[in-house]
Structures are given as structure tokens and as C-alpha cells.
Amino acid sequence: MEEQLPQEYGPKWSDQRVERMLGALVIGVVGLLLAMIVTVFVRAWPSFSHNGLAWFGPGGNVDDQLNAIFLSGQNGLEYVYTFHGWPLIWSTILITGGAVLIGLFCALFVAVFIVEFAPEWMSNVLQPVIRFLASVPTVIYGLIGVVVLVPFIGNHLITEPQKASVAGVISLTGYSLLAAILVLTVMITPLMVSIFSDGLRAVKPGWLEGSLALGVNRWRTTWKIGVRSARPAIVAGTVLAVARAIGEAVMLAMISGSVGFAPNPADGLIFVYEPSRPLAPTIVKNIDQLSSPPANATLFAIAAVLLFSAAAFSFTGYVARRAMRKYGAA
Amino acid sequence: MESVQTPPPPSSQPANPSAAPQPSPPSRGGSKGAVEGTATWAPIDRLGLAVCWALGLLFCAIAVAIVVYLLIQGIKFLRPEMLWTPAAAGFSEAETGGFSDALFGTLIVAVMGISLALPTGVALAVWLVEYGRPAALARVTEMTIEAIAGIPSIVLALFGTVIFSSTALGFLSRTSEGVVFGRSFFAASAMLSLVALPLIVASTREGLNSIPRHVREASYAVGKTKAATTRRILLPTCRPQVTTGAMLGLGRIIGDTAIIVVLLGATQNFAPVEEAPFPLDYLRGAGTTLTNFVYEASPTGNLNQPQKAYAAAFVLLLMVLALNAAVDIVHRRARKVGTWSH
Amino acid sequence: MWGKNSDTPGPPPIRRLKLEDPEPATEVLPPTNGSNGHGPQQSGFTAAKRSIGAPQFSIRRMEIDEVSVFYGAKEAVKGVSLPVRQGEVLALIGPSGCGKTTLLRSLNRLTELTTSARLSGRILLDDVDITEIEPTLLRRRVTMVFQQPNPFPMSVFDNIAYVLREQGSRRARKKTLEPAVLSALDRAGLLEEVKDNLDHPALKLSGGQQQRLCIARALAAEPEVLLLDEPCSALDPKSTQVIEDLIVKLRDDVAVVIVTHNLQQAYRIADHVAFMYLGDLVEYNSATALFGSPREQRTREYVSGAFG
Description:
The structure holds three protein chains of three kinds.
Chain A: H1 15-51, H2 62-74, H3 86-117, H4 120-135, H5 138-157, H6 160-165, H7 177-201, H8 205-212, H9 218-229, H10 231-247, H11 250-255, H12 279-285, H13 293-324
Chain B: H1 43-77, H2 80-84, H3 100-131, H4 135-150, H5 153-164, E1 175-176, E2 179-180, H6 185-209, H7 213-221, H8 226-237, H9 239-255, H10 258-263, H11 280-284, H12 290-297, H13 306-336
Antiparallel strand pairs in B: 1-2
Helix pairs in contact in B: 1-13, 3-6, 3-9, 3-12, 4-6, 5-6, 6-9, 9-13, 12-13
Chain C: E1 59-71, E2 74-86, E3 89-93, H1 100-107, E4 117-125, E5 128-129, H2 135-141, E6 142-145, H3 156-165, H4 174-187, H5 191-194, H6 207-220, E7 225-229, H7 237-250, E8 255-259, H8 263-269, E9 272-277, E10 280-286, H9 287-292, H10 297-303
Parallel strand pairs in C: 3-8, 3-9, 6-7, 7-8
Antiparallel strand pairs in C: 1-2, 1-4, 4-5, 9-10
Helix pairs in contact in C: 3-4, 3-6, 4-6, 6-7
């Protein structure tokens, strides 16, 4: 399309030149990401190689292990890498899973409401509310959680007998799974609502009109046709929410409790009151340990697990959306 | 129009100026006319609608509660001196000064972060929309931007420690006894720009994609290069979208804590590097921002000065709200201007 | 089919008069030129050949009484009165923007989806004003097929089963629904082509098949009136012919109202034709009369192609 004019006549910023410069920038950014991934895994390798698959398993008190790892690096003795991260992984699974499940349910209903069933005044209020909730910094969620939710749970929800029943193992103070899941849900739901709403609005109006013209009421039409067609957007939104939840470090560091304890469902319902600490906050809480080489490797190993999980979820979402194309839902 | 094959960016609002509804076919908004009563709905349908209302009201209530609570606590504890008094050591909260360093710190990282992210993001978006050859590289780039959007900021922070602790980049932070400290405003801003980048790229792409092809062709037809067309015609037209992206990115930057905690040093005051000239001494040094301050001042942090935490949180929330309002204004103004007839 | 399992009040039972005592056909066909139904010479309408015979019976189903539809200040339909009869095909013709689609959509209250729309006059379905019937129930008795085939993104079976399932509060099992689905597909003439694989994604069918699926879907609701909005305009001639034959066959079961901009199509398949222009009903007559010897000057001009 563009002729290649002789250099003397061409403009200074010829298209070729600009394209090459932009291309270099693009390659730079891609390279940066690759470098990031490689660096994280390379730095993480010592921790994985010393522990093998047991890295992910249970065994011992993970806080003690972290301490031991750190000290071994400081004292110039032989490095200790022993690390069994299961309590952290279990905490991540519980908190992320709980928040995403509740959030998905809430976000679906709120999105359907905003797009289809809310009267004008309500949706004019609700949409800015959702945007607001999505933009509140996580540290503020953490602060409010710490000063409002945690004392409420600790003083008013958890009863003395409940505290006594697990007193030997762990103390229930209100820094708990419940607090973490509730606040995390409020954090990720707005994200899902906006993506779901976009998806619902993009459904072909012909389908919705066709369904109404067959005598199906608006509620069923919206759910059976609208939500069903918006399934790729729902998957995309959920995947994004999961990635956000897994990576959430600061708020969870403030609320979930600072112990590497694996909440035990066998304790019955009390287990939602038990404190724990997922993977991402563990990094934040132990960030001063970076100077000690084995601790450095361990923290990077945790980061590698985070990276891998986020990527795995993205990939699963991508595969799911491709499968949905069969019925033309994409 | 963004297809749903690539996940939409984590922007909180779609920036599409919407077309006006026509009488036929019916507009989407028209179907909310609620001409259909719920009397003929099965009970479970009505229950579902009740759940919708309940959840909608619940989230409104939560938002109101957050704002009201911070408002009350902020007004209670925020004294104007806090905004220009730096933090100091002291025994009681009254003696420990304010958080001016944190406030300036937030402004500094915001400016530096956006100055890095904005040109880069716009350039990437331009390449993706206007050039994009070879196609494989374009797909890889799209995936990269998505990937960066999905990486937790704590991981970005860790990576930052690796880069900025290297001797090659020692000039960007303090070096003492041959060991590069690796924590400075430069370091934090660089990684924060990555946080804002995907938002800017997505918004700019949307803006560029919404310009119909014939505008570009008109410009090429008078002999302008692609670069000139982009610079003189396309980008100025996208100003609303670029601005929206920048403000969304700013919002993410000033709200981020993990990168600050890791890459800005664990102080509450500026810690400038002595040997360097102003302003580099501050930028190469450590410091703090409002988010870090709230984190440390909260009951779970090292300082445990909850009153100051409320005050700082209040100021932070005001900044975020102001940014949100600005984005809204930009949107509304953009919608008033017409679009091309495609 | 529906209404039996549901807890919600079902629609009034379908009144089908037995074929032994129908009303006689309302219009006696004027004699043609003696040949096998070719269009008369004087209106220049020579090419088309009618594929529809005289109606066997006709039952008044809907009555359109001085209906005007306003979109805001603009009057899209001005004071139209028409009867809609089972046993007959009514075609609405006219140039673009004449209001025929608006009139069609007002018959099942789809115009109410647009907030600025207002309707004056009355439309009666079996002597009941349609504004007094719940819209959802009305739309099960008066179903519509659109110009663009819009099968849902599901399998063929689910498309039809969808209509049957969403009528009641209890979800019927697949086995229970199967006879109804097959019957609807049969009536739409699609059964032979899809019966081997009912789980085939509906969007993968050809255009003509998709439109027949939409007709089958509309029939599955067991309507009394079937509205068709230019159903063949997006299809190739062969599919068009298949659907036209289908429409002619359906007229005994449901009252058919079809909007078409294709005059030849109207001539081929309609019993009665209403010609509209800029919102006014210019002429309403039997098809052969309107095309053969139109009463109004404007009809004459339109039919001979002077404008359109």
C-alpha cells in the first residue's frame, strides 16, 4: 500500500522506521515478560529441587520451617531448604475458592439485575457503586476488615466454648477464613459484574426478541438465552477474578491471620473461624528475608507457584471458551 | 467492537459511546419497560428476582458503609497538619507528626509511573492496531499484555528486586558498601508502570479500533504516512479513551501496596541518597506512599497508629474518588461529541 | 402440551372449530383468465403463478380495529382495520417504511418493547382485547417468525424443547418432550432432514433450515396465529419455495399473517392482501382481486412497479 520512496525524498519518520522502532518496543515488552518468568523460576529452582514434590505437601509447622530457612542463610552455615507448603496452599484454595464461588453467584445476579431488571434509577445508582467498589484500594479493604470485621467476628461471633474447643491447637481471634473470604468476595465481585454485564449486553438482540416472541417470560429469556450466550464472558470474568484472588497479598496479610495453619474442616463449622495465611501474603510477610539466599529461593518458589496457577487458570478459561464455540455461544 | 475471545481487560468500565436506540428493532434498554408483570411467573422466577434486588441493595449498602465509615473516622482524625508534617518518632499518636512524606510519595510514584506507562502503552496499542506484522508477533503481544494484567503485583515486586539489585542498575538506587540496595522510587515506579500498562493498552486499542477505516484511507489518499496519520489524526481523536486508560491506570498505581512495600523501602519518611543532586537524591532514595503508610499504621502493621491510618485512608479514598469522577466526566463529554456514521 | 403441568394459569383452551361446520369462505374467487391461474394481463402482473387454492374455511381469529401506532410523535400506522382469519393467509405489502412491520409487531405487543411506542384502537384476539391479556400468554398464542433466522445457540432439539420447557415451573424430561418436538419439526417440514441427529447445533444448519426451525419453534407453542415478518428475504430461492409451500399448508391450522416486500410472493401464497402506504391501509382485498383489478390508483401503481 505504501510505496517505498527513495530515502532522500521520504519523510524523516518513515513508516518503515517507525514500524521498526515500535516493533523493537514490542519485542522488548515480550522479552521482559519472558525474562520475568524465567527469572522467577530460576530463582525458585533451589527450593523446588531440594524438596521435590514434598514442597506442596504437609509436614511440620511451615512457619518454623520458614524461620529455619532464613536463619540458615544468615548464619553462614549450610543452607536449609526444607519446606512443606501445604498449609499455605490449602489456605489459598479455601479462601480463593470460597470468594470466587460466592462472588460468582452474586455477580451473576447483580449483572442480570443491572442489565435487564433494575429500574432506571436503580441501575443508575448500582453501576457507579460497582465501579466504586472495584476501585477502592486493597489496603483500605484491609483496614476496614481489621478494624470492623475482625473484632466483630472475634468478639461477637466466636463463642468462648468454640475458642476453648480448639485452644490447644490454635487460638481464634477473629483473624479468620471467614473474614478473608467475605472481604475478598466484595473485592472481586465488582470485577466480575462489569465483565458479565458487558457479555450480557453483547448478546444478539434477535435471540432475546425471538424468545420473548415465543411467549417465554423475561426472567427465563434472560437466564436461558442471555446468560447462556454470555457464557464465554462469564468464564473470562471468573478466570480474571480467580487470578486476582490468588494474587491478593496485602489485604489478606492483614485479615487472614498470620499463621501458617491449615484450617481443618474436621473441626466442624468452627473451621471458618480459624486463621491461616495463603501463599501471596506469605511473601509479603516475609519480605525482609530476601537477603538470605535459601529464604530468597523459597519466596521465589512461592511466587512461581502463584505465576503458574494464574497461567493455568487463564489457559483453562481459554480452552473452555473454545469448547463453547461449538454451539455458537462464543 | 471487542470480541469476547480475548478476555476484556480489568478495566472497570467499557468506553464505548453507545448508539442511540431506534424505533425498530427495539433497543435493549426498551425491554426494561417492565410491561410484563411478574404475575405469570413461576414462583422460582419471582424468588430469583427477589435475590437480584437483595444483592443489588446489599452491594449498595456495603459501598455506602465503606464511604460513611471512612468519612466519619477520617473527619474525626484528619488534621490538616498531617498533610504537611512528616512522620516522626514519638510515644503517642499526637507526637508522631503526619504523613506528608507518604502523600508526596504517592504523588511521585503516580507521576513517574504514568510517565513510563502512558507512552509505552500508547505505542504498544498503536503497533497492535495499525501495524501488527507479523501476525504471530501480534498474538504473542496480546497474550503478553493479558499475562501482565494477570500477574499478581507481589510477583512483579519480587522480580523488581532482582532487576534493581543488579549492579548495572545501581544508579537507580542507593549503593552502600558495594551492595546495591535496589529499593527506590525509580524501582517502584518502574514496576508500577507495568500495573497500569494493560489498562492503557486496552483503552487505547478500543479508541483506535472505533475509528472507521475510511478515515485512515482518506489520510493515506493525500499522501500522509501511517505514522503521521496516527500522530495527527488518530491519536488526537482517541484522546478520551487514552485519558480514561491513563486515569484507570493511575487509580491502580496509587492503590497498589505490594510493590511499594517491597520496592520502596520500609521507612515512613523520605530517605534521600546524599551524594546525588536534587531531585535525583529523593528519587533514588527510599520513601513511602499513602498505601504503605496505611498498611504500616494499621493495627496489624509496625506502627500501630490507627488514627493516622484512618486519616491517610480517607485522603487516599478521596483521591481515588476524584479519579473516578474525572473518568466519568471524560466519558460524558466524549458521548456528547458525535461519532462517525460507519 | 403446556398448561397441563404448570401451576401458572394456562391460556384459554384453543378453539378449533370442527371442519364439518366452518363458515363459508368469505370471498368468492373472481374468474381468472381461464388458464391455470396465471396472473391477469391488465395489471402487468404476469409472471407469478398462484400456488394456493381457495381457502377451505375461515374462522375469524383477530380483529384489528382502527389501530394507530405512534413512535413518539411519529404516526407509523394510521387507523388500520383488518380481520385475521384462520384458514387464510393474509399478506401485508407495501414499500419500506409503510408501517406493515409495525402493524405486525403490534399484533403480539412486541411494539411495547420500545419505550416510545403508543397504540390507539383495539386489537381483539378471539373477542378479547389483547391489552387485557398478559403479554407472555399472548405471545404464546400469537407467535412470530423474524426476518433473520434466529435459532438459539443450542441443539435443534433444545431449540424446540425450549419453548415447551419454559411454560411451566417443573422442568419436563427429555423423553416427555420428544413427541411434541418431533411433531413440531414435522409440521415445519424439517423432520426428515434432522431426525437422525437432533443434537446437531442449530447454528450449523443452512439458512433455509434455520428458518424452518424457527417456524417449527413458533408452531411448538401451539399458537392460534402465526406472524411472519419477511421470512424469506434472507434466503435463497429454493429455500423460499420450500417455506412458501409450508406456509400454504399451515393456513388450516393457524391464522397466518405474513409481511412481505416481494409482490410475487404475496401473489403466490396469499388469500387476502392488505396494501399499506405511509401508515395508511390503502386497499384490502382478495389477492386475485387486488393484483388483478386493484380499486385504488396507488395500488395499481405499486403493483405494476411504478414505485416501491
